[in-house]
Task: inverse folding
């Protein structure tokens, strides 16, 4: 079985755990902090927490590193920093307000997973 890369591990974990509207943005060459940003929508604060916990479990189980997890359950936004990939799990209203997709531009869209 081929070894999965970090983006694939994150994407499949988010999809398997019912994250909505998962996008992968390729920011390699335009950002110094990561190669990709993954944005996923959670339907509640508890769902966001559950998604982040499952994501951390999957990343660690695959032998990959996590630099940190930021955000509180009440905030509606949890960020998982893996260095080369940064994952943003957000409630819909928070995602609409911050519009990370618009910030980085449509040319960075690598994959729309749902």
Result:
């Amino acid at each position: 079985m081929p070894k999965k890369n970090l983006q694939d591990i994150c994407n499949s974990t988010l999809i398997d755990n019912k994250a909505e509207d998962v996008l992968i943005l390729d920011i390699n060459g335009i950002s110094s902090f990561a190669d990709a940003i993954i944005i996923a929508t959670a339907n509640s604060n508890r769902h966001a927490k559950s998604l982040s916990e499952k994501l951390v479990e999957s990343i660690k189980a695959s032998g990959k590193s996590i630099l940190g997890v930021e955000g509180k359950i009440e905030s509606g936004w949890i960020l998982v920093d893996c260095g080369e990939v940064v994952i943003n799990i957000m409630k819909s209203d928070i995602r609409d307000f911050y519009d990370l997709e618009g910030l980085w531009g449509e040319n960075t869209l690598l994959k729309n997973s749902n």
